Amino acid sequence: MSVTITVSRHHTFPTRIVFLTKEEAANIRDFSGETNEISLGYEDDSTLITVGLGEQKSCTPDTVRAGAANAIRRVHDLKRTDVSVVLPEGSPAGVGTFAAVIEGTLLGNYRFLKYKSEPPVMLEKIEFVGEKSALEELRRLETVCAATDYARDLVNENASTMTPARLAQEATALAKGGKLKVTVLDEKEIAEKGLHLLKAVGQGSETPPRLIVIEYAGDRASPEKTGIVGKGITFDSGGQNLKPTGHIETMRCDMAGAAAVLGTMRTLAAIKAKVNVVGVIAAAQNAIGEHAYFPGDIYSSYEGKTVEILSTDAEGRLVLADAVSWCRKHYAPGRIIDLATLTGGILSALGDTVAGLFSNDDALAGELFAAGEKTGERLWRFPLYREYRESLKSDIADLRNLSKLKKGYASSITGAAFIQEFTGDLPWAHLDIAGTAWNDGSARGEVPAFATGYGVRLLVDFLTRE
Prior knowledge:
By secondary structure, this protein is of the alpha/beta class. The chain has helices at 61-77, 97-108, 138-156, 164-174, 187-192, 196-202, 256-271, 316-331, 345-350, 362-375, 386-390, 411-420, 456-464, and strands at 4-8, 15-20, 38-43, 46-52, 82-86, 125-129, 181-185, 210-217, 226-236, 276-286, 298-300, 306-308, 335-340, 355-359, 379-381, 399-400, 428-432, 438-439, 450-451.
């Protein structure tokens, strides 16, 4: 059920959310204004939810965003159907305060309830209260947040439903508005055109692979074009290198990079962004079956380089290699960014709050890092030294899909280095979102439990930045 969003100069609903810094809360009884503090009070027939923002000097958009999300979940607990969200007076977090309130409110309102036989009371109306000049970006933010929720829905869906063919259907549906052009290669075309790595990964499943291309031309006067490539492994069993219990249960999230690409393309078309972008999704189900590929086998990539398979559970880099090569050859972008739930190693390095950034271009890496800091979808850059690429050389093929380093050593870096072998001379960045795409714990701030939709807001900010 969608929520109706309105703007008002004065609150009209009996439940409202307000924000106060410690300084503003100095004379309020039983409320200190500490960061993440939420107080519930009643005035006549009204319910007042007060959100603490901490000291004004240390308040950031991240603080405000998280506070708004936590407050809207309190509204859920109260079973309210409507709420007024009062924008803070002034800008306690500086530039971006109002946007952070809106984002936190809308992103925090997300719940995946499709399979609940008795769904809870739903929030039907959200009213933002403040000067209309402060809300000029509301519709744009609403569009981006809705696309983030769309990406969350795709990842949260059953793997038996969200197949490679279903991802292709989702892309085709996005194109019905006429602003996107979608091309889909089925399993026969994938084989005929030589995308042998993508074919190998998907050939063990009864749901065959797809290569999905989505084109958006928002600035026909410009020759510049960005390629965004998403890993779309709709379920990753590990193949013959089967994943154990404790790791396999959440593997429907292995297409979170593809979901981020779909959400980003949807947003660009909706806001009529003045950019040119081609989104490429390598979609496959990595399953065990009579036709599954084997460890030790050698396959040729679309680019022509041969790859020795040391693990069928290192499949993401294989499908991305073909997708990146296809994007380069057929669409000639000026730069490529890929997103993938690629390695468990990135969780060991960064946990589940920051994604790994790998790039051959300092300027591109810097712009992506800045976008992450602004949106709260943070990144941290890792090195790509020659030694890591050398470790991927095979004795019987051109490359191996696992490095020669000791097991587990630099796994995230060598995974990125493998993809780099297929990027040519293009400026390129790889975002390892294995930690940030899924939240095994309870909701925290604007990040819900389960699928997070990570990457949509980051990419939209990066691509549309002036």
